[in-house]
Amino acid sequence: MEIEALVSLRSAESPAVGRDRIRLLEAVAREGSITAGAKAAGITYKAAWDALDAMANLFGQPLLEKRTGGRSGGGATLTPTGIKVIEAYHKLEVEMARVVRSIEPHLSGTGISPLNLVSGVLMKTSARNALRGTITQIVSDTVACEVAIKVNEDTTIYAVVTQESLKALGLCIGREAVALIKAPFVIIAPGKSAPPMSVRNCVAGQVRRLTPSEVTTEVVLDIGGEKSLAATITAESARSLGLEPGKPACALFDAAHVILAID
């Protein structure tokens, strides 16, 4: 059986950056725009934006330099970081293939293939938001802990985990972690500041885009530092709140709805 290595770049469970997203990044750079790159990669414009947002959140640096409007229209080119990410990914693919081939003899007779081994180690998550940051504070009691993760200069996300999880994950101040938040758990409030609520997290940003359907609307906020946060709200709520691209808004969610993951 021919062995093929599939590499995922990630800081924790995902959204992972794998071959499909690297190919999308290459396609956008090659075609010169996100629209054309999405078409070349065989995915929708929305799916391309979601993937590019995930990559920016994961690496914390822009991989594309985007241009909007102008006489020549919009476009996109790779940043130096984007070039390095693509190069590193392909080098990892080559090295992973070599490693996987080298361990195949050691698994002979066990009923476990290298493919089983690798796929069992790699894991994915359904959480729409995966924001990487650094743990800056841990407040503990006998049962639970509140962990603060700084994801950019202006944004800190708070998560509540058990003491057992704190120890099992090895969480400590200064360590990097990824905050996972499902989009339906996020509430959107228009304006630069939200009304008083009992939720622990209030992340200010600017509406980057809206993707409406008959029942729901996905709202993506630009929260600075090349990172974004997505929420799924009802279409009627999006209309009544007057949400539009470029307008300020806040994302609100409870600390108990934040899952932490580590490398």
Automatic annotation (TrEMBL):
Pfam families: HTH_1 (PF00126), TOBE (PF03459). One of its GO terms (molecular function) is molybdenum ion binding. It comes from the Bacteria. Residues 124-190, 196-262 form the Mop domain. This is Transcriptional regulator, ModE family. Belongs to the ModE family. One of its GO terms (biological process) is molybdate ion transport. Keywords: Molybdenum, Repeat, Transport. NCBIfam families: Mop. SUPFAM superfamilies: MOP-like, Winged helix' DNA-binding domain. InterPro entries: LysR_HTH_N, Mo/tungstate-bd_C_term_dom, ModE, Molybdate_resp_trans_reg, Mop_domain, Transp-assoc_OB_typ1, WH-like_DNA-bd_sf, WH_DNA-bd_sf. Residues 125-133 are annotated as: Required for dimer formation and molybdate binding.
